[in-house]
Structures are given as structure tokens and as C-alpha cells.
Amino acid sequence: MKYTLLFLLLVTVVAFSYEQEEPKNPPDAEFYKNLQPLKRFVRQMPPPPEMPPPPQMPKFEHSVSDSYFENRQKREAKGVGGALPTRKG
After folding, report:
1. Distance between CA atoms of 24 and 38, rounded to whole angstroms?
2. What is the DSSP string of 14-69?
3. Domain-by-domain residue ranges, the chain?
4. Mean pLDDT by 10 residues, the chain (89 residues)
5. CA–CA dist 53, 16 (Å, integer)
């Protein structure tokens, strides 16, 4: 019972403290007026430069990766999963 009363007292004190605080957000009209210089600055920024295309892979690496991918698809179609076996020499 004692703790219940203390809890209710704490809740009321916190509620009153929130009511007395002034809102920190400016009114909408003032807020949008402050945004105008920022919007003007953003409009004046030049567009980003176009990115160059990614470098092309050499033909040799491309064919190796394609053959590996095709072999992997064949193994998966057969139901063989997991990594390729390693050579022990």
C-alpha cells in the first residue's frame, strides 16, 4: 500500500513537470521560414558527377567463373550440395 501511494505521487509529479515545460519545437510557420535558406542552398548545389562504369573483368576470369557457376548448377541439380572436395597431395 505504501509503495502504491509513492508510485502515484511520483506519476503525478512527473505529469505536472511535463505540463509546465514549454514546447521546444518552434511554431510551424517559423519552422518553415527557417527552412527556406537551406532549401535555396540545396538547389544551388551542382549535381553529383556521373560515376564511370565499373571495370570489366578480363575474359579469362570471366570464363572461369562462368564454368564454375555452370558446374555448380549441374551439381545442385543432381542433389550434390556443399563445397567442392579439396585435393590432398
Report:
1. 21
2. HHHHHHHSPP-SPPHHHHHHHHHHHHHHHHHSPPPPPPPPPPPPPHHHHHHHHHHH
3. 13-43
4. 86 79 63 72 76 75 64 74 64
5. 61
